[in-house]
Amino acid sequence: MAIEENGFLEYLQLQGGDPDLVTKSELIARVRAEGYRVSDRQLTFYVSEGLLPRSVRVGSRAGAYPAVVVDLLTWVLRARDGGVPIEALKELLPVWKFLVAARNARRLDLGELEYVARQHVSSTEGSLAVARVVIDVMTCVCPDCQPDMMVVDKHGREMKMDDTTLTIGFAVARMAEVGEDAEPTPRWFATTRVSLARTRPRASDPTTVVLGIKPNEALPSDVLQDTSQDALEQGELPA
To answer: Is residue 225 assigned to a domain?
Structure first.
């Protein structure tokens, strides 16, 4: 098996020892099955930008990727649909990898999450998207992880992720100019709090504000929505 220094082994390790591989055509087909349009050209673009590893030849299988790249490409496309810039995605990639490893270990340490995010994410766009990445990896991709998943707060206290009383806060700061001669000072820019626990269907929840669809259009099925299980609470993110 010929392997270049392109992150292939790192993504293989992210699968927790699962040796499952997919070909390029299988990767594209599985991502399309998730409802996202992707072409060979787009795949090449994301590889060139460093968001996806290059494929390698494994035995008779040319152009193989670790199966976790299906989740990675789906996340990239979902984030792009949400308007996250490419440069911000590059900052967020280490956060995504950390969360996948935490999901595999069934243990999300918020202190470690904060360290990784603050180490790699510097843009406002990237910082605002961190909460969405957590929701994506922990609930959209792996709804069945919840019963065994533990969340560890910054004081070392553990709670089960499916505990409906558990919420995780995100506060975004940025350096602000306060005067022509003054040094920039940190200011709080946005805050939000999310619950990762399984919740009742969104459309029937009177505390949920449904967005993205015109007032008279049909809503998605609550039966299908109950598989993703994320709920944003008390958001104060800017437009």
So the answer is: no
